[in-house]
Hints:
By secondary structure, the protein is α/β, with parallel strands linked by helices.
Amino acid sequence: xxxxxxxxxxxxxxxxxxxxxxxxxxxxxxxxxxxxxxxxxxxxxxxxxxxxxxxxxxxxxxxxxxxxxxxxxxxxxxxxxxxxxxxxxxxxxxxxxxxxxxxxxxxxxxxxxxxxxxxxxxxxxxxxxxxxxxxxxxxxxxxxxxxxxxxxxxxxxxxxxxxxxxxxxxxxxxxxxxxxxxxxxxxxxxxxxxxxxxxxxxxxxxxxxxxxxxxxxxxxxxxxxxxxxxxxx
Length: 233
């Protein structure tokens, strides 16, 4: 067992009478990539926002690197939202400078290399980029940090298939053995190859969890096929 970077103990989240997460207990180990998988409304984004401190749990506790969610834990977490949160009028180069000024662990050279690899001009204003290119810029800024925990909410949702392999390689190559990655996605077939562990959420509860290889062997099917079987209409 590796070092634990994230621990959830009996975590619940309610919005009025609606329960988004129901008594979630799990741990994430360093050096591993975990897929957080489930249909819309299963609680994936809620869990990621709780871990990032954007929401507070209705019950239970989340700890990041042994710290309760707060200022100290946020310094360890690099978060990719499922929607655009950057100032559209800023140029890409200004966004790089903003992240470099705000985050002590930001690697400007890594960000510039990834931007060049994907043909993204630093002079472009964020708002003028296509939806796919805006998603690439956001992911590059997130992965250019040397964080302990990367929380990626739909990182390749709007990216063209030709760029997905590069994005996936970017995720693999920009975290270290003392860090962990949690990916929420619907595009399981595209990311399955890099997942060490998987968590299936349904209606706010964990219904399947384990090492990806063990689950494939036990179920005699791919994670993508299991997902389709578990959540078929």
